[in-house]
Amino acid sequence: MAAANGSGKGFEVPKVEVKFTKLFINGNFVDAVSGKTFGTRDPRTGDVIANIAEGDKADIDLAVKAAREAFDNGPWPRMTGYERGRILHKFADLIDQHIEELAILDTVDAGKLFAIGKARDIPGAAHLLRYYAGAADKIHGETLKMAQRMHGYTLKEPVGVVGLIVPWNYPTTMFFFKVGPALAAGCAVVVKPAEQTPLSALFYAHLAKEAGVPDGVLNVVPGLGPTAGAAVASHMDVDKLSFTGSTEVGRLVMKAAAESNLKPVSLELGGKSPIVVFDDADLDMAVNLVNFATYTNKGEICVAGTRIYVQEGIYDAFVKKAAELAKKSVVGDPFNPRVTQGPQVDKDQYEKVLKYIDIGMREGATLVTGGKACGDKGYYIEPTIFTDVKDDMSIAQDEIFGPVMALMKFKTVEEVIQKANNTRYGLAAGIVTKNIDIANTVSRSIRAGAIWINCYFAFDPDAPFGGYKMSGFGKDMGMDGLEKYLQTKTVVTPLYNTPWL
Amino acid sequence: MSDHRARILHADGTRGLLPGVLQRFTTAAAAEEPISPPVQVNYTKLLINGNFVDSASGKSFPTLDPRTGEVIAHVAEGDAEDINRAVAAARKAFDVGPWPKMTAYERSRILLRFADLIEKHNDELAALETWDNGKPYEQAAHIEVPMVARLMRYYAGWADKIHGLIVPADGPHHVQVLHEPIGVAGQIIPWNFPLLMYAWKVGPALACGNTVVLKTAEQTPLSALYVTKLLHEAGLPEGVVNVVSGFGPTAGAALASHMDVDKIAFTGSTDTGKIVLELAARSNLKPVTLELGGKSPFVIMDDADVDQAVELAHFALFFNQGQCCCAGSRTFVHERIYDEFVEKAKARALKRVVGDPFRKGVEQGPQIDDEQFNKILRYIRSGVDSGATLVTGGDRLGEKGFYIQPTIFSDVQDGMKIAQEEIFGPVQSILKFKDLNEVIERANASQYGLAAGVFTKSLDTANTLTRALKVGTVWVNCFDVFDAAIPFGGYKQSGIGREKGIDSLKNYLQVKAVVTPLKNAAWL
């Protein structure tokens, strides 16, 4: 396993340069009104990378005011969709020109693998922006078939000033899940990035300005949830709120929206996603897929496949191979190209994951591999597997958000459908089978927003993503992702002397 | 008559009153040497499978400068054998790939790079277009070529958003609809907007993952060759777009009747459209999209601002030398404002700046070729002979090239040839009407149904006319507003299908329903 940590041997840690540490409001980098800052830390060491201006209510007020002005009187919603699309294309090109620099920021800030950042996260952000750049001129209202002598049609109007609260696990991807469609729709936005990972968001603000996004259209206010986040969620002049994060905080956001101006909310929250592996699966393929589904991004991913249901015919063989594969993981410095797993994002998360491992053992699950922290500094944890997990154990019910796999055995399709749905979450699910009927039956039966059959994390700009049940509501990505940033207005006028209706 | 100036004055009957116009006509159209086009002709061969090649026969044909009738360049002349080669290349590029097997994002990136290259070469493309076609350079450079880039970006944005539906069948079945590329698309484009028509056709075909054999008009082969070179520079795989210059009866017919072409799209005259449809029917029943002729009404109600209406109606007809399929060529004016309208329309036509299309400020260049030129002059004679009043214009302008005076007829009756047939030149016919129902009936009394203009301040009149006119586009208080996102196409003998907008994608997609039983479905 997992000879942990970044000794720096055999690879080079690129120079980290933090250019932007202030709030970005109305096209300018500014200090917080309070003058306060907070340290953003490197999870490899726990050391402070940079001190960032700490936004709170006063700064959110300024950002909302700038966004309000940009929306109510500015050029952005008054441009053609094509013109907005051109600017977003330019933004995407600028991201492509700064891949290395941006990937470095996400790696030092979130402990994410540098190689994956360069190959996927950052180019993926440009891809997503191009998708929505191409969507900006394809927002269609409809003419209606009225049951009266009336001409009716719908207009899809930008909803206005949008608050976007972004999590730390995919600082870049989540930023563009929200900013891409909101800007394409013609909205002005106030983004609050997670306090753990403000660096890349501020860099994107800079690139947006360079691309020609008008001042006030994109504001980025780093800060803490209870202060800055709460101020966005309860602001009377924010027309819409989109949040990605934990279910607990999602509930607070929704309450704040309800108690303020009833702004519509979309929430992308936690998950405890099942992967169901049937007897007919190719065992090695299934083991690889499940390993990938659980340990990607050190398990810090809302759609992680964390409840692994394996059919009894292959269960024992699966457990053995899954443990062997987990032991091959290389935990260590995420800048090391050989490393497959970096550190957890911060001390809180690190301690939470270790606590759940402890709970798993106390509740009677069998620890097959892993289970410990590794390295002598930073927040590294071994890839961990539990077997003999029961559906009602905490490690089968709660979102751990770490590299912890819970393996369970099942007999029949009906049984596993029932078990898979036995959760308050409904974000995603995986199915591994060669059987078309099983695939179709299970796909329709699992109450989750994304079903991946013989694949996992099959995200795509054109594929809508979002949860059932307490995993949230509203979709990111795809043309559905645009909907939440649009208002539908119906326009009706009488028809006289019409040759058809 | 030896002096063309005298002819102008004779035609509009305003001898001595319009020295400025006279001078403009003189200098622009005749007295000066044509301005040397700021571009070179680099590509004259056929573009097949990514390479410029001579035609199989070795033949070539001249493409002419409509300002002078002189040869610009000799262009390889494709016929059936070249079409066969191009189709084989397109077939391979489709069946083997990589084009339809790439992700839509990869295809869209190529189209986006293509748009950037078009922008980079904007002025050369515009100059080539003006040289070959005679359209004002400013129009080509500031409107048409940028619109080509706009169209490519628009379709690039569609490439990764082509959605089939999941269908609720009445039974335990899972039903998916796949929208697949149709295969090898044959496309025949006209000479009036060579690059725009290229973009209307090639854009959606490529976005949907098809391969293309394009036949350009023999009058205007140059810009398509240039731009397709840029498309390959943008990363287009070989064989995906093949361009064959040539004539309709040879190359065009070979394409329309080819057994290995899966789809044909044609823009041009109604007569030729019928031949294309027939050839498709006789060969392999390939689906056909046709964008054909028009005789589009422009209806001006009595509540209209006359000055604005005059300007818009003028633009609707004279734009692009009147060589627009959707030209507003039947100007219906309410009787209450008719006389005022005719007077002002005449004044506006007399102010129209006709001359070398490379000259700044020129609104109207020469007609495309001598055939069109003579045809238009015949129609003008027919108008006079049938008793319409020639208000202004009526003759050629200058002694070389294919310039025609901006011409207006008033007192035009519905039965006259000039009110029935597509003239495709700078000839405005002004008709009088009394009431709404009458004008609806008369506007619809046409074999065509491409477009219409409606000019009124009344919301109810606008809504009534909008729904009553049997045409594919109604412009209310505007005209010729084109955009990549707005579908365009005709009713009746103006064609079949729609181009641009989301509707255009249908032309290049096959619909496949995929059905499988559901066992123990949780819901239906």
Automatic annotation (TrEMBL), chain A:
The active site is at 268. InterPro entries: Ald_DH/histidinol_DH (IPR016161), Ald_DH_C (IPR016163), Ald_DH_CS_CYS (IPR016160), Ald_DH_CS_GLU (IPR029510), Ald_DH_N (IPR016162), Aldehyde_DH_dom (IPR015590). GO terms for molecular function: aldehyde dehydrogenase [NAD(P)+] activity. Keywords: NAD, Oxidoreductase. Pfam families: Aldedh (PF00171). Residues 30-491 form the Aldehyde dehydrogenase domain. It catalyses: octanal + NADP(+) + H2O = octanoate + NADPH + 2 H(+). Homotetramer. Belongs to the aldehyde dehydrogenase family. This is Aldehyde dehydrogenase 1. It comes from Digitaria exilis. The lineage of its organism: Eukaryota, Viridiplantae, Streptophyta, Embryophyta, Tracheophyta.
Automatic annotation (TrEMBL), chain B:
The keyword NAD applies. Gene3D superfamilies: Aldehyde Dehydrogenase, Chain A, domain 1 (3.40.605.10), Aldehyde Dehydrogenase, Chain A, domain 2 (3.40.309.10). One of its GO terms (biological process) is carboxylic acid metabolic process. InterPro entries: Ald_DH/histidinol_DH, Ald_DH_C, Ald_DH_CS_CYS, Ald_DH_CS_GLU, Ald_DH_N, Aldehyde_DH_dom. One of its GO terms (cellular component) is mitochondrion. Transmembrane segments: none annotated. The active site is at 291. GO terms for molecular function: aldehyde dehydrogenase (NAD+) activity. It holds the Pfam family Aldedh. Residues 52-514 form the Aldehyde dehydrogenase domain. Keywords: NAD, Oxidoreductase. Belongs to the aldehyde dehydrogenase family. This is Aldehyde dehydrogenase domain-containing protein. It comes from Digitaria exilis.
